[in-house]
Amino acid sequence: RQLGGLCGVHCVNNLLQGPLLGPGDLAEIGAELDLEERDLLEPAQPNTREGDRALLESNNVDASADGGNFSIQVLARALARFRLELIPSRHPAARDVMRDPPNAAKGFVCQRYFHWFAIRQVAGYWWNLNSTRSL
Predict the structure, then answer these.
(1) What digits encode the pLDDT tens for the residues 65-115?
(2) Contact (Cβ atoms closer than 8 angstroms) between residue 5 and residue 61
(3) How far apart are CA 70 and CA 123, in angstroms?
């Protein structure tokens, strides 16, 4: 069952079928991505305008009090640590396999109303591993 706003953590762990990553792990990945993005976006001049600073704020980690919502890029990088590739269902590379979703993958990362959850095949059956769903 989900605690706080940690749906990204629960989604990844449900997909991996174990408590393999914590909020700190995903926050660290988010911080890494923020630095990489900042390097790409930061102006060469040291006098950054106020409007430009908004571009440098994190879009990878929700730092609010009950935060824990992470960007798709954070989830993709976290899953890559386990040699799993997260491909958007509408990506050209997935076009053919997504014609038959149950045979396209062993699991899916989904987002609905700003909430991450996993759908995964376990022992031949598909399970909705939504951490806020009632039994």
Answers:
(1) 456 679 999 999 999 999 999 998 888 988 888 889 888 888 999 998 888
(2) no
(3) 29
The catalytic residues are 7, 115, 130
Listed residue (98, 131, 96) closest to 112, CA to CA: 131
Rounded to whole angstroms, the Cα distance separating 18 from 33 reads 24
Closest to 28 (Cα-Cα) out of 89, 67, 65, 77: 77
SS3 labels along 55-86: HCCCCCECCCCCCCCECHHHHHHHHHCCCCCC
What is the pTM for the complete model shown?
0.81
